[in-house]
Amino acid sequence: MTTTTQSVGSVSTSAAQTLARPPRSLWRDAGQRLLANRLAQLGMLIVVFFLALAIFVPILFPYNPRIDSDLTAQLLPPSFAHPMGTDEQGRDVMRRIAHGAQASLGVGIGAVLIAVIIGTVLGLVSGYLGHTFDLGTMFVMDILLSFPGLLLAIAIVAIIGPGLRNSLLAISIVSIPIYARIARSSVLSLKQHEFISAAQAVGAGSGRIITRHIFPNSLSPVMVAATLGIAAAILETAALGFLGLGQQPPYPEWGAMLADSVKYLTSGAWWVVLFPGLMIMLTVLGFNLLGDGLRDALDPRLKNR
Amino acid sequence: MKKRSIQFATLIFALFGVLAVSIACGAPAAAPPAVQTVVVEKIQTSAPVVQTQVVEKIQTSAPVVQTVVVQATAVPSAAPQAFIFGAQGEPVCLDPAVITDGISGRVINQIYEGLVKFDKDTTNPVPALAKSWTTSEDGKVWTFKLQEGVKFHDGTDFNADAVVKNFDYWGNTKNPVHEKQIAAGQVFEYYEAQFGGFDGDSVFEKIEAVDPATVKFTLKSPQGPFLNNLAMFVFVFASPTALEKYGTETCKNPVGTGPYKFVEWKPNEQVTLEANPDYWDKANAAKMSRVIIRNIPNNSARLLALATGEIHALEGMEPRDVAAIKNDPRYKLLLRPANTTGYLAFNYKVKEFQDPKVRQAITQAINKQAIVDALYGGTGMVANQMQPPALWGYNPDIKDWAYDTEAAKKLLADAGFPNGLSEVTFDGKKVPLEMWYMPVSRPYYPNPKDIGTAIAADLAKAGINVSLQTVDWATYLDRRSNGQLPFYMLGWTGDNGDPDNFVCYFFCLGADDAPLSREGFIEDKEVSDILKKAAVLTDQGERAKLYKQAEQLIHDRILRVFIANNQPPLALLANVEGYVPNPTGTEFFNTVVVKAGP
């Protein structure tokens, strides 16, 4: 999060450059730089892979976790029939990981989407309007930020009850202030620029200025934060699942799978722990690499490096 | 930034490698943390290519780790002075009168004694502080002859007067110490449960000290399990002087007559006891100079402590670890005789459960044998009634409902649910059918979540779709007591080896034959009447017949689904001798010896 202020400043200069040189837009420029970045490529590859897993596996290989149990095939080590082994219910770990992607990524991305939408709107409006509204909103955001994210999420889930939908809700509530503050801080700096004064001078209303002038210009820091935020949200989903507050049995979710299998570590069944853990690590890594790449790409000061 | 993320990635990869390889290399001894940190440091300084190197490194180092652990236990040493037991939690209180939990009970068992105690690995009452006893013809008058020359740890004489004073403390609400305990929020739960209540409500007409060595109990009506009740770990005698002196602080200052006396209790850590040099029964005196009962709540941590020789024995293991312990010559595996039953209870406020066909479908849908085989670590057995086989009220003639998914589907269709059952009418409201599993591991359900998931899958195969639910333990028990759980897992560990304690608690109706919310409003007056009749008889043969009859009815009417009995496992180091597992779960440590290491 420390780097966002940097990019906020840079957005405005890049906007000026874009005006000076219309043929290449900021986004196209950034896209090219992103594609040229090896690590970002790796990140994208991972993210696309898991997204494909989450979207297509449930469609192509329907799975009913309710009836998936074969106690005679309990905790089999990885083999040709079960490349990632089986768990304590005799369920194929690979299949559950593939189907668990939907829950983990779904909540991660869903929560961030909700948080970004609400947070950005709040940030833009309060930053632009200022005064009491700004004070009030930011006060609430500060309160939310003063709790450690996961702890607050646990508290929320404890109140509204465990489950995947509720953990999505909890994680998005926890993430709102992050985006609200980023959006607000870009508004504060953008407000000082001449093009805003120009828009005001020609008689544009607040609504138009926010949506047509400020919002597009504040988008890139929010996007970077959101990409990195997805990684954090996936981790939080897994953490809630691990604590038994997220996805409920028998439905698969990586964190819950991990929690169910730690107890088999002492008896040597490493595959039930390793693979879900590895998947969490890989997706988080993927989104982090992508987010880093995006940040670099959107920072025009790095353009000529 | 980029560089940092590479480092981070490799670090995580390597950590996983460490974990996976060290685990793959062998259980139950895991690598000591020191090794892990060394490897991690190595990775932090080295470059991206590390991954394969690291794995190699660990593969070579893991066997070393193993031998280190082996050596730790295998080093020949002088015989230890203390026997150290790893318990699953912290004692609640060391005043036997106000506890119900087995963890406190284990400590209390070493310090205190009652009139009678359970013999070795059975629930047969044998003499303890009572030498002998006689019963009147009508079973109402019990006269106990006491051991003479016995002193409490504080020097107070043990005699009939002390017995009377203890009973007064437990059952007389006007007793000053009793009053203080109640004011301090304590409850005398077991006294109330086993002896019918306090003051005038209790089963006792009077309790008198005839002479210093004779005590006489006069009951209002005969009580079948009277002697077994007296043998329970809670009805043991505290020094009357100490009781007066410590009052509500008796919890922290236990004074009894037992083979070990109390030294100190470090909260959340351990309780230390030392041998009582003046113990009256020389033949059964303490064999170790100290006993330490250590609190290690985590199953894996406790096993690790055993592997390193930090403790000598433990209870509570993951089922999968049981087999490993059994086959490892460094350890001994002991099983407590089966005295637990895990069941699945219906709440009769759910309209659908009132139909015996639905209950039968549920029973027949569950593959109990597969669950016992896969999830009990070889210590469980399929249950078909409330009592475990060892109890004398057990009915061996009951033939369990067969596991048959197709039959279950058909029954469900006959009951009017051809498309399966996913929604029920609970208290007049249409709700999804929830099945509740316990959040904690108990002897009867070592892994409630796994077992619950397996049961739910079996049910789903027959078209009964339950949504699995749980909540923290206190809330779980609370909601169960209030009849708020529609369909739930729970179980029971017997306290005193009497069938009454096993069956009547669940299937007897309450006052005025009202169904109990605690038992899901179960209402079967015929069963209840049989059980209540059996409780006031004293002839065991007569009583056994009634309990068997009741069990048959409970089974035929499917009042509840019984899943499994378990023999809770104990793991000991191979050099520990004389540990006798008791079905009630609270053993005597006076016979335990830790020999010099091999």
Description:
The complex is a heterodimer of chains A (about 300) and B (about 600). By secondary structure, chain A is an all-alpha fold. Chain A is about 75% helix and about 0% strand. Chain A has a single domain (about 25-55, about 85-300), classed as MetI-like fold (Orthogonal Bundle). Chain A has helices at about 5-20, 25-35, 40-60, 95-130, 130-145, 150-160, 165-190, 195-200, 205-240, 255-260, 270-300. In chain A, helix 4 packs parallel to helix 7 (about 165-190), helix 6 (about 150-160) crosses helix 7 and helix 7 runs antiparallel to helix 9 (about 205-240). Chain A is elongated, with a radius of gyration of 22 Å. Chain B has about 600 residues and is α+β, with helices and mostly antiparallel strands. Chain B folds into 3 domains: about 5-90 and about 260-335 and about 570-595, D-Maltodextrin-Binding Protein, domain 2 (3-Layer(aba) Sandwich), CATH 3.40.190.10; about 110-250, D-Maltodextrin-Binding Protein, domain 2 (3-Layer(aba) Sandwich), CATH 3.40.190.10; about 340-565, Roll (Dipeptide-binding Protein, domain 3). Chain B is about 35% helix and about 20% strand. In chain B, the strands form 7 sheets. Chain B has a 7-stranded mixed β-sheet, with helices on both faces. A 4-stranded antiparallel β-sheet of chain B has the order 4-5-7-6, covered by helices on one side. In chain B, strands 14-20-13-19 form a 4-stranded antiparallel β-sheet. In chain B, a hairpin with a 2-residue loop joins strand 6 (about 205-210) and strand 7. The radius of gyration of chain B is 27 Å and the shape is globular. The N and C termini of chain B lie far apart (about 55 Å). Mean pLDDT of chain B is about 85; it is low at about 15-75. Classes of the chains: A mainly alpha (about 300), B alpha+beta (about 600). The interface of A and B includes residues 66, 67, 263 and 278 of A.
